[in-house]
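Let's inspect a concrete specimen:
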Amino acid sequence: MAKSEDKQIGGDHYKRMSIQPIEFIVKNEIPYREGNVIKYVCRHEHKNGLEDLLKAKHYLEMIIEEERDKIAREESYDQNRV
Protein backbone atom coordinates (compact mmCIF):
# COMPACT_ATOMS: atom_id res chain seq x y z
CA MET A 1 0.00 0.00 0.00
CA ALA A 2 1.37 3.41 -1.00
CA LYS A 3 2.06 5.96 1.71
CA SER A 4 0.66 9.47 1.49
CA GLU A 5 4.23 10.85 1.47
CA ASP A 6 4.82 9.00 -1.80
CA LYS A 7 2.11 11.02 -3.55
CA GLN A 8 2.56 14.63 -4.60
CA ILE A 9 -0.18 16.81 -6.00
CA GLY A 10 0.81 19.71 -8.23
CA GLY A 11 4.27 18.93 -9.57
CA ASP A 12 7.34 16.87 -8.76
CA HIS A 13 9.51 19.45 -7.00
CA TYR A 14 9.54 17.46 -3.72
CA LYS A 15 9.97 14.06 -5.35
CA ARG A 16 13.34 15.24 -6.70
CA MET A 17 14.70 15.37 -3.15
CA SER A 18 16.16 12.39 -1.32
CA ILE A 19 14.37 13.54 1.86
CA GLN A 20 11.14 15.45 1.42
CA PRO A 21 10.82 18.59 3.56
CA ILE A 22 7.65 17.33 5.24
CA GLU A 23 9.43 14.17 6.39
CA PHE A 24 12.30 16.20 7.85
CA ILE A 25 9.92 18.72 9.46
CA VAL A 26 7.66 16.11 11.07
CA LYS A 27 10.46 13.83 12.30
CA ASN A 28 12.23 16.79 13.91
CA GLU A 29 9.02 18.31 15.33
CA ILE A 30 9.78 21.64 13.69
CA PRO A 31 7.15 24.34 14.32
CA TYR A 32 4.88 25.57 11.52
CA ARG A 33 6.66 28.79 10.54
CA GLU A 34 10.14 27.27 10.72
CA GLY A 35 8.85 24.35 8.65
CA ASN A 36 7.59 26.72 5.99
CA VAL A 37 11.00 28.39 5.79
CA ILE A 38 12.54 24.97 5.14
CA LYS A 39 9.85 24.00 2.62
CA TYR A 40 10.07 27.18 0.55
CA VAL A 41 13.87 27.29 0.51
CA CYS A 42 14.06 23.63 -0.53
CA ARG A 43 11.65 23.95 -3.43
CA HIS A 44 12.44 27.40 -4.84
CA GLU A 45 14.76 26.19 -7.63
CA HIS A 46 12.18 23.73 -8.97
CA LYS A 47 8.90 25.54 -8.40
CA ASN A 48 8.39 29.29 -7.88
CA GLY A 49 11.92 30.70 -7.75
CA LEU A 50 12.11 34.14 -6.19
CA GLU A 51 8.49 33.98 -5.00
CA ASP A 52 9.29 30.98 -2.79
CA LEU A 53 12.39 32.71 -1.40
CA LEU A 54 10.29 35.76 -0.55
CA LYS A 55 7.74 33.49 1.17
CA ALA A 56 10.57 31.91 3.20
CA LYS A 57 11.84 35.39 4.08
CA HIS A 58 8.37 36.44 5.22
CA TYR A 59 8.09 33.46 7.57
CA LEU A 60 11.62 34.11 8.84
CA GLU A 61 10.72 37.75 9.50
CA MET A 62 7.74 36.55 11.59
CA ILE A 63 10.02 34.28 13.62
CA ILE A 64 12.54 37.09 14.16
CA GLU A 65 9.81 39.50 15.22
CA GLU A 66 8.46 37.00 17.75
CA GLU A 67 11.96 36.42 19.16
CA ARG A 68 12.56 40.17 19.47
CA ASP A 69 9.23 40.60 21.27
CA LYS A 70 10.10 37.73 23.59
CA ILE A 71 13.47 39.29 24.44
CA ALA A 72 11.85 42.69 25.04
CA ARG A 73 9.26 41.15 27.38
CA GLU A 74 11.97 39.30 29.32
CA GLU A 75 14.07 42.46 29.63
CA SER A 76 11.03 44.44 30.76
CA TYR A 77 10.20 41.77 33.33
CA ASP A 78 13.77 41.76 34.65
CA GLN A 79 13.82 45.57 34.94
CA ASN A 80 10.53 45.56 36.85
CA ARG A 81 11.95 43.06 39.36
CA VAL A 82 14.80 45.35 40.35
